[in-house]
């Protein structure tokens, strides 16, 4: 038998517990109290009380104790797991005043939405660069039986799995890609966050937990390489800008030459054509404004 099969066989499943409304049992308790007071009034002032009223009074006291022990309360978005000598009997999710048999024990668990922001973790991204990454996770318990009985501490379990999932996602993608040819942590935050949610859901499913949302809250290069990577980003940005500028300039020069030839504005030999291309490239790619020079001679002077 594989490990996965063993886990599936041992997984607990939440079911409904057989409990009762506490308000109905409260009426029973009041009735028993009234009967007990009546029996006590019969005994007061009697030097030798009859055996019947005595037994009746003792019975009402025992019933009173029996009923009063079984009361408990459940707040909204809270549940109570019912146990019989350690054996799981079901989960009670009905809110308000509740009652169960006195020999049954209960363990309360919150099914409210939890919000956790992980600590900043240092991880190596896909390219080996150390980065700092943190995430915010919204989760809740959906199967109380699994949360209580399949893991030792479901809150600690979720915390540890969040850290593991964030590390796994952080090392799966590069921090940034100036050419935008692949998914990155910085540019594709929504996609990465959704994959983080799926990854984390698979990890915490054994604890009966559902992950509603995951979002990256912090993403940066590690401090020791932050300045170097900033200079690298600046250099890559300059190179990318220059490349786009040259591509645009070449297209404009080609368009100008084609239109001059198509409209017979001027005929240029190869040497003059090369000179015009050079001048146009300088004008279009220069960082500063160019100053025109008027040539009063011939084109070849």
UniProtKB/TrEMBL annotation:
Transmembrane spans: 20-40, 52-74
InterPro entries the record matches: Band_7, Band_7/SPFH_dom_sf
Keyword annotations from UniProtKB, A to Z: Membrane, Transmembrane, Transmembrane helix
Localization, UniProt: Membrane
Membrane topology of this protein: Single-pass membrane protein
Protein name per the record: SPFH domain-containing protein
Domain Band per the UniProt entry, residue ranges: 69-233
Coiled coil: none
Organism, as annotated: Sphingomonas colocasiae
């Amino acid at each position: 038998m594989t490990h996965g099969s063993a886990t599936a066989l041992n997984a607990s499943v939440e079911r409904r517990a057989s409990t009762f409304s506490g308000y109905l049992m409260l009426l029973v308790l009041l009735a028993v109290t009234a009967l007990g007071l009546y029996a006590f009034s019969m005994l007061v002032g009697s030097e030798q009380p009859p055996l019947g009223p005595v037994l009746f009074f003792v019975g009402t006291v025992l019933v009173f104790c029996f009923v009063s022990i079984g009361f408990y309360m459940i707040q909204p978005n809270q549940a109570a797991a019912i146990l019989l000598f350690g054996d799981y009997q079901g989960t009670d999710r009905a809110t308000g005043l509740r009652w169960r048999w006195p020999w049954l024990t209960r363990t309360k668990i919150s099914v409210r939405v939890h919000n956790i922001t992980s600590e900043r973790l240092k991880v190596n991204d896909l390219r080996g660069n150390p980065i700092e990454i943190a995430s915010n996770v919204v989760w809740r318990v959906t199967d109380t039986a699994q949360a209580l009985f399949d893991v030792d501490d479901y809150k600690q379990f979720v915390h540890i799995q969040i850290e593991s999932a964030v590390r796994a996602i952080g090392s799966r993608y590069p921090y940034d890609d100036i050419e935008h040819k692949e998914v990155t942590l910085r540019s594709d935050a929504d996609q990465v966050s959704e994959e983080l949610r799926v990854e984390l859901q698979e990890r915490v499913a054994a604890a009966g937990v559902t992950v509603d949302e995951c979002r990256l809250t912090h993403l940066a290069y590690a401090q020791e390489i932050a300045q170097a990577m900033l200079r690298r980003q600046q250099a890559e940005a300059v190179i990318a800008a220059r490349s786009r500028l040259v591509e645009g300039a070449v297209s404009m020069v080609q368009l100008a030459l084609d239109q001059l030839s198509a409209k017979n504005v001027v005929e240029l030999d190869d040497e003059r054509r090369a000179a015009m291309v050079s001048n146009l490239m300088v004008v279009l790619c220069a960082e500063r404004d160019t100053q025109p020079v008027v040539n009063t001679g011939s084109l070849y002077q």
